[in-house]
Each structure stands twice: as structure tokens, then as C-alpha cells.
Write a structure and sequence with these properties.
By secondary structure, the protein is an alpha/beta fold. The chain is 35% helix and 28% strand. A five-stranded mixed beta sheet has the order 6-9-10-3-11, sandwiched between helices.
């Protein structure tokens, strides 16, 4: 059974329909890239999966691990293992990154009926995870994303993802505008969780070689291009 099933999904915002009949199936261990120009509905898909209120599904259904996603509140979706990395991460003045991460992690553990991590256990976990991703400990003491460069904000998103260990991560153009070092951290974070599933959205159009791989035909926008973790395949 697919981890995520999207069938004939139509979504509107402010009375304007953005998604017009999207179908998508994502299994554990797969990476899907949603490609298309501005306005084709890439971020709309990410937001409606996460439960952003302004984005209203009008037709179709989405099932996450067999459950009706639209019957779940955003915090329930997160606790069930759905994670969204924002294209433009928000700044949270006055809240230390370490405090934010511990609150988020323990909130999910509590929702799942697990014991909350003690301060020593959490510090050990976050330092180990940050170290593996090459993230400076000093960043953890600063307010969430305040004064961060674009690359630092994206690194912080990947650190959150690595700590929360979601079953499905939706990355909204997480790799845009990054230098080579930040790109490596993003890639390492994704690869560490490859046993899970990813939906990544990209602005650039796919190349001809991507659209016409052996045995694969071109597909209309928004195109869903999937790479299985074992071998390449077209969605």
C-alpha cells in the first residue's frame, strides 16, 4: 500500500482553483519531484497536505497511510509523520532554536503516547544530529531563523527533519538559492532518511532527458517525476 495516495485532487484559494485533478502515489523509500512554472500548484500541494487553512480541497481525496488526511488536524498530521520544509522559513524572535526543537520533538512524542525526552537526552540527540549534518552548535543557541542567512535557514529545516524523523517529508524548494556547502547538508539530510518518502517541489522545468527516459513518456504539468531509491523510474 502506498504511504501517500492523492486521487483527483482539486484545491482552491480565495475562490480560484489552483490544482485541477492531481493524482499522485508515493511509497516508502521513494523520492518524487513535482516540477512546473510559477502558479502551477507546486506549493499549493505542499500546503494542502500540511493543512494550511486558506487552501481548500474541493474535489478528490488524500490518504496518508490509509487514513483520510483531510479528517486530521495539522498537529495530527505531524504526529503521524508528515513534515513540511518551507520554501521561506519563518523567523521566531525570542525563541531559541534549541527550545523550539525540544518543544516540537516532545510535542510529537506526547501525541504518539511516547515519553518526553529529558533535557540531557535531548541535548545529546540534537548535538549528535547537528554534528552529523555539519551544523554549528552556535546556531542552536540563536533565535529561530533570526539573522540567519538563506543557507542557515534551510539547514535548520533539515535539522528539524532529521530530529523529527518523519515518514513523509514535503520539501518546498528547499534547495533553492543555496551554496554548495548548504546543498551538501540538505542532500545529506535527505539521504539519511531515504528509507522514508519525500515529495520535493522544484521551480526549474525538467530537462528533455528527464522527460524522455527509456520507457517513459512526457507528462503534463504539474509533472511528477519519481526516483525509486533502488532504481530510476518515472512517476
Amino acid at each position: 500500500m502506498a504511504l501517500l495516495e492523492v486521487k483527483d485532487l482539486h484545491v482552491e484559494i480565495d475562490g480560484r482553483e489552483i490544482l485541477k485533478g492531481l493524482d499522485l502515489e508515493v511509497k516508502a523509500g521513494e523520492v518524487h519531484a513535482i516540477m512546473g512554472p510559477n502558479g502551477s500548484g507546486k506549493s499549493t500541494l505542499a500546503y494542502v497536505l500540511a493543512g494550511k487553512e486558506e487552501y481548500r480541497p474541493t474535489v478528490g481525496e488524500v490518504r496518508f497511510d490509509g487514513r483520510n488526511l483531510f479528517e486530521m488536524e495539522p498537529d495530527e498530521r505531524a504526529a503521524a509523520g508528515l513534515f513540511l520544509a518551507f520554501q521561506y522559513p519563518l523567523e521566531i524572535p525570542g525563541v531559541a532554536t534549541m527550545t523550539f526543537l525540544r518543544t516540537a520533538l516532545n510535542a510529537q512524542r506526547k501525541k504518539r503516547g511516547q515519553a518526553e525526552l529529558s533535557t540531557p537526552d535531548f541535548l545529546k540527540k540534537v548535538r549528535e544530529t547537528a554534528g552529523k549534518l555539519g551544523i554549528d552548535q552556535e546556531m542552536l543557541r540563536r533565535a529561530v531563523n533570526v539573522g540567519f542567512s538563506g543557507g542557515e535557514k534551510k539547514r535548520n529545516e533539515i535539522l528539524q527533519m532529521a530530529l523529527l524523523e518523519p515518514r513523509l517529508a514535503v520539501l518546498d524548494e528547499t534547495d533553492s538559492g543555496l551554496d554548495i556547502d548548504a546543498l551538501k547538508i540538505v542532500a545529506d539530510g535527505v539521504n539519511r532518511l531515504r528509507a522514508r518518502a519525500f515529495v520535493r517541489r522544484h521551480h526549474p522545468l525538467p530537462t528533455a532527458s528527464q522527460l524522455h527516459r527509456p520507457g517513459c513518456g512526457a507528462r503534463p504539468l504539474a509533472r511528477a517525476y519519481r526516483q525509486d531509491r533502488r532504481q530510476g523510474a518515472c512517476a
